[in-house]
Amino acid sequence: MGPTKRSVTIAGHPTSISLEPVFWSALDAAAVAHGLPLNALIAEIDALRITAANPPNLASALRSWLFAHVMCVSENHSQ
């Protein structure tokens, strides 16, 4: 299935993000795991993104964060 666009609010500003449904599901689950609303988790990831020397676009940053999150969770479960 192709990307799905959702509107989110980051720092009081509405923006649209296009991600494949599997990434939206993973973000929803990560937000629950972190005890945050989805917009808050996306805002945290965005804050990390903009500190990079050459920041990626937000959708790429979300996918990269999710990959790192899954790898971290996987590593913690294997120990």
Q: Can you put this structure into words, describing what you see?
A:
- This protein is α+β, with helices and mostly antiparallel strands.
- 58% of the residues lie in helices and 18% in strands.
- The chain has helices at 21-33, 38-49, 58-78, and strands at residues 4-10, 13-19.
- Helix 1 crosses helix 3 (58-78) and helix 2 crosses helix 3.
- The longest helix has 21 residues, at 58-78.
Topology:
Blueprint lengths: L3 E7 L2 E7 L1 H13 L4 H12 L8 H21 L1
Antiparallel strand pairs: 1-2
Entry keywords:
single chain; 79 residues; alpha+beta; two-stranded antiparallel ribbon; 3 helices
What series of H and E elements makes up the topology? EEHHH
Instruction: Count helical runs.
Output: 3
Helical residue percent? Answer: 55-70%
- The strand line-up of the biggest sheet is 1-2
Q: Based on DSSP secondary structure assignment, what is the total number of beta strands?
A: 2
Distance between the termini: 35 Å
The coarse silhouette is: globular
The multimeric state of the shown protein is: single chain
**What structural class do you assign from the helix and strand content?**
alpha+beta
Unreliably modeled segments: none
How many whole angstroms does the radius of gyration measure? Answer: 13 Å
Strand content: 15-25%
